[in-house]
């Protein structure tokens, strides 16, 4: 029978363990530092960004709706494109409607209609509740006070989107496009 006895020095084992941990930490700092440097090097202060276009979708719909009402002047002249349904109030003229969405306001799925007052010459061609995709320019209008109004350039009927509902605006929304 052969017996082999190996003695490992605990001081030597600790030195190797600490060296491995330090190397791993240095590698992590290098990778994180590179990722940070690489992400900040892509955005330059002098880069020009097209700020004449505001993209509206189900995720930012109510944030932009709220911000455009609170800061109308920074949205004037911006082009928008989004989908909603036609919603009319009794005091609208024949060229006006709200390009609307249902905003969920409670956990039991109660909703209210929210949207942008919109104007177009052929508004009467679209019945209430019809889903449309519209492109237009934001102008300052008046409906019981100054509000943003979408002057529609192109409009077409569409199907109900899979994300037809929107949610209340987030408190942390900062529009980076304007």
Report a brief summary of the structure.
With 178 residues, the protein is of the alpha/beta class.
Walk me through what this model shows.
- With 178 residues, this protein is of the alpha/beta class.
- The chain folds into 2 domains: 8-47; 53-166, OB fold (Dihydrolipoamide Acetyltransferase, E2P), CATH 2.40.50.
- The chain contains 2 helices and 7 strands; from the N terminus they run αβαββββββ.
- The protein has helices at residues 10-41, 61-70; strands at residues 53-55, 79-87, 96-104, 111-119, 131-142, 146-157, 165-166.
- A 5-stranded mixed beta barrel has the order 2-3-4-6-5.
- The longest helix is centred in the first third of the chain and has 32 residues, at 10-41.
- It is elongated.
Q: Topology, please?
A:
Elements: H1 10-41, E1 53-55, H2 61-70, E2 79-87, E3 96-104, E4 111-119, E5 131-142, E6 146-157, E7 165-166
Parallel strand pairs: 1-2, 3-7, 4-6
Antiparallel strand pairs: 2-3, 2-5, 3-4, 5-6
